[in-house]
Amino acid sequence: MRKFLLATAAVTSSTQLLLSFGSSSPPSVIAFSPPISPPHHLHRNGRNALASSPPASSPDAASVSPGDEEEVGPDAVFDATTLLSNFDAAQRSFIEADGSKGMGGGTSALSYLRSLTPKDRSSMRDAVSTLVQKAASERSVDSSKGRVMMGFCAENAPEALGGLRCWVTALGLPRGMLHGMDVDGVPIAPEELGSVYVKFSTGGAMTFSEMRKSGLGFDSLWRPGDALLEPYDGDFRGVYLNVELSDGVFRQFGVLPTDLFMEEEEW
């Protein structure tokens, strides 16, 4: 079981902790839309008022620096989108051929992820990085554009937070507050949470007019890098990725490997 590091253990009056995700872990075919919700998601009684927090910087992992990269062109975006779409199609086919084991085929989806070759994983990393870099470029011009959302389905909280830390660090994504690891200011022990779902967003609308326009209600008021941890009763293990670009193409992929951005010797 991997560990996450608390930057401060003090619970504030707003029941938020500053936390630094510490390392990672390991599958779909069920769509999510903003705000991302996990497939077969169930809230357990007494676990819906949550709060805690997120990532501190981690200098040890290689990360994408969107501002330092050359502009991502339409051909690169098309190729990355095509590769990830083909992955989704192959995963769906595998789940069906495997008898759709687990709730919604979640167990079969994990089996497919475990069958990926190092070359598959490398191509997938490049494609994800390309789309996220393009989104960052658009977001740098208009903060309401280029939104990136991720949803982590995991066996336990350390696994989910480790995966979140690796993806955020490797992709150079913003870090905000992580909510969901306390109830009314009382921290919840990670082992008591069971399976979890963590949803992350680079941000939504920042004004009420933009909020109304988005149609997302108060969920659109997330600040860049905010994440929410919730109980999860499904069988999927992995990451859902949604990248919104100005071309209006719907880009949603998953589940992708939670450990996609970990060093090979770590998985």
Essential attributes:
15% strand, disordered N terminus, 6 helices, 6-stranded mixed sheet, two-stranded antiparallel ribbon, 267 residues, alpha+beta, 31% helix
Structural overview:
This protein is an alpha+beta fold and 267 residues long. It contains six helices and ten strands. The strands form three sheets. The chain has a six-stranded mixed β-sheet with strand order 4-8-7-3-9-10. The longest helix is centred in the first third of the chain and has 24 residues. It is globular, with a radius of gyration of 17 Å.
Helix and strand layout, with pairings?
Layout: E1 5-6, E2 19-20, H1 74-97, H2 106-114, H3 118-141, E3 148-154, H4 157-171, E4 178-179, E5 182-183, E6 186-187, H5 190-193, E7 196-201, H6 208-214, E8 227-231, E9 238-243, E10 252-256
Parallel strand pairs: 4-8
Antiparallel strand pairs: 1-2, 3-7, 3-9, 5-6, 7-8, 9-10
Helix pairs in contact: 1-2, 1-3
Major sheet: size, sense and barrel closure? Answer: 6 strands, mixed
- Percent in helix: 25-40%
The count of helical stretches stands at 6
H and E string: EEHHHEHEEEHEHEEE
Poorly predicted residue ranges: 1-68
The overall average pLDDT, rounded, is: 75
Category from helices, strands and their pairing: alpha+beta
Shape summary: globular
Gyration radius (Cα, Å) is: 17 Å
Strand fraction equals 5-15%
Distance between the termini: 12 Å
